[in-house]
TrEMBL record:
The keyword Nucleotidyltransferase is assigned to this record: yes
Keyword annotations from UniProtKB, A to Z: Nucleotidyltransferase, Transferase
Sulphate adenylyltransferase catalytic domain location: 182-393
Span of domain ATP-sulfurylase PUA-like: 12-173
Protein name: Sulfate adenylyltransferase
Region described as Disordered: spans on this chain: 556-576
Ranges of Basic and acidic residues composition bias in the record: 559-569
Keyword presence, Ligase: no
Length: 576
């Protein structure tokens, strides 16, 4: 695949060049033998993954680890020194005493082999720069905090040494992706798949993290597919905290849903083997550029994309794109608001499309879905497909258990976040509680109650509203069940009987009762009669076909309705 080929495509790699630093064949064998004679620096799995991303073009136009000038420019400005947008520095600062000795022995122009835990070379790094590595500076600029509770900040202090090496890489050995190997797609593969095999003119990318596929994701995907030819779904795999859903099961959950609910030829699933940076909005920009390098013309970005805890505003991953023009990003950014399920709309929606209050919403939170699965409960079908939840539940790792062998997690937070009605109301559509509940007092039984309420009643809200409309609106009364009309007839007949008796009672009632506890005076009997008449007015009318003849206000013959002003015989249509 050359640059002439790219000129024929509706997209271009970032920086205009798709990097390929993967050696093959005889050249690879020769360089692998040579690498074993070079100084060796040991690298961890995260570094191996980053090296492979660089070499296969995922992080184009970067051909290796950054020199000091590019590193600091990216850190402070979100751009390479030449002005090209690049939000996250690619740095290599080996840690460990043995590695430190090797680094101290190196000079610019040297080459060094990078080896994984097998002690076999993975890549060769040609050193073009060596510079001091300031951990605090990196944390404050990249993450906006130096708080070690932030996982990205913590990773800097755990994984990074004091000096960084910059220079181009060549990859000698790809890692085997285990169960994901059969799904592996590198940028060179997706460009060919999109634009040569499938003949797409547009493709949307979607990168997602630690949670299983839910219907908020599905809403975004299918909105995009209404106008974009193809969809590339890339769940992040490999590096994940223990509390997350194991990546093998997340991929299987995705496959199950795609095979059942998505258009087969237009939705493509490929794992993205990447390290978690936890950089919030900056990482959202990085993901957009990765999608671009995979050939996508559009990047789908949800609310709180790549967010972590409360370190970033929920829509910071949207507002950061205001800092760049679409021309310099080179990819169409599609931003989506938070998706929820509205019981009154009877559909997925966002604040952009739905006017209804929290009391009619089931909110979609990947974290809360994960915690429900950890408790052994399948979330409502309105927010997670059962095909996804059932498999994902098998991949939930223990977060710790209490004395009852139940998972420890903030149940109140789950309920408040996903079922906001529960704190204020006794049930879906029910009355307000005398005293609202607080999240702190909720337990698993409350979670079970909220889940059961939704399972039993979620589809009733819109259904019963529709029944009320149809009971009045159907002019074809054959659609209405006879029992409903019979019930209304009965109620009206019975209430008329009540009124007749009360009218007699009013006529006979004295102006003043001799015993107010045993007898009623005329005034009280009249009030009783007035109430009974009001109740009759409130009983819905029984609507039969003959009652609704007045609604047919323009009974033209069908031929006239279709537009002919001539009698049927003159049109050549003679009624038999």
């Amino acid at each position: 695949m050359n640059q002439t080929t790219f000129s024929n495509y509706p997209q271009q790699p970032h920086g205009g060049k798709l990097v390929n630093k993967v050696l093959t064949g005889k050249e690879r064998d020769e360089e692998l033998a040579r690498a074993k004679q070079l100084p060796i620096i040991m690298v961890d799995l995260e570094a191996v993954i980053t090296i492979e991303m660089i070499a296969t073009g995922v992080l184009s136009p970067n051909e290796g680890f950054m020199n000091e000038i590019d590193y600091k420019s990216v850190l402070k400005k979100g751009r390479l020194d030449n002005g090209l947008v690049w939000p996250v520095p690619l740095s290599f600062a080996p840690i460990g005493e043995r590695n430190k000795e090797i680094v101290q022995s190196l000079s610019i122009g040297d080459e060094v082999a990078l080896a994984d835990e097998t002690k076999e070379p993975v890549a060769i790094l040609k050193i073009e720069d060596i510079f001091a590595y300031n951990k605090e500076e990196r944390a404050s600029h990249l993450f906006g905090t130096t708080d070690r509770n932030h996982p990205g900040v913590d990773a800097i202090y755990r994984r990074m040494g004091d000096y960084a090496l910059g220079g181009p890489l060549t990859l000698l050995r790809r890692a085997h992706w285990g169960p994901f190997e059969k799904l592996r797609l590198e940028p060179k593969d997706t460009w060919r798949l999109f634009y040569e095999e499938k003949k797409f003119r547009s493709a949307a990318g979607f990168i997602t993290g630690a949670n299983p596929l839910h219907r908020g994701h599905e809403y975004i995907h299918k909105n995009a597919l209404e106008e974009i030819d193809g969809l590339l779904l890339q769940p992040l795999v490999e590096m994940a905290k223990r509390e997350y859903t194991r990546h093998e099961f997340r991929m299987l959950a995705y496959r199950s849903v795609l095979e059942t609910y998505y258009p087969k030829e237009r939705a493509i699933l490929a794992p993205l083997r990447v390290t978690y940076i936890f950089a919030g909005p900056r990482e959202a920009v990085l993901h957009a550029l990765i999608m671009k390098n995979y050939g996508c013309t559009h990047a789908l970005i949800g609310r709180d994309h790549a967010g972590i805890g409360d370190y970033y505003d929920k829509y910071a991953s949207h507002s950061i794109f205001d800092e760049f023009s679409q021309e310099e990003l080179g990819i169409d950014i599609r931003l989506f608001h938070e998706v929820f399920y509205c019981l009154r709309c009877d559909s997925l929606a966002t604040v952009q499309t739905c006017r209804h209050s929290d009391s009619l919403r089931i909110n979609i939170s990947g974290t809360n879905i994960r915690e429900m699965l950890r408790h052994g409960i399948l979330p409502p079908k309105e927010i997670v497909r059962p095909e996804s939840a059932r498999i994902a539940m098998q991949g939930i790792q223990p977060k710790g258990v209490d004395e009852n062998n139940q998972a420890i997690s903030p149940v109140g937070k789950i309920i408040k976040g996903t079922f906001p009605f529960y704190l204020e109301r006794t049930r879906l559509g029910g009355p307000k509680r005398d005293v609202p509940l607080t999240p702190e007092e909720l337990n698993k039984r409350d979670l079970e109650a909220a889940i059961m309420d939704v399972r039993l009643n979620a589809d009733r809200v819109y259904s019963e509203v529709f029944e009320e409309f149809s009971s009045i609106g159907d002019t074809d009364r054959d659609l209405q069940p006879e029992w409903r009309m019979e019930a209304r007839d009965s109620m009206r007949t019975q209430q008329k009987m009540v009124i007749e008796d009360l009218e007699e009672k009013v006529q006979q009632a004295p102006e003043k009762a001799s015993d107010e506890f045993m007898y009623q005076d005329k005034e009280e009997a009249q009030r009783e009669l007035a109430v009974a008449r009001k109740i009759l007015e409130e009983i819905p009318a029984t609507l039969r076909a003959e009652n609704l003849e007045y609604r047919t206000w323009n009974p033209l013959p069908y031929e006239r309705y279709r537009g002919s002003d001539e009698p049927a015989e003159k049109n050549g249509s003679v009624k038999k």
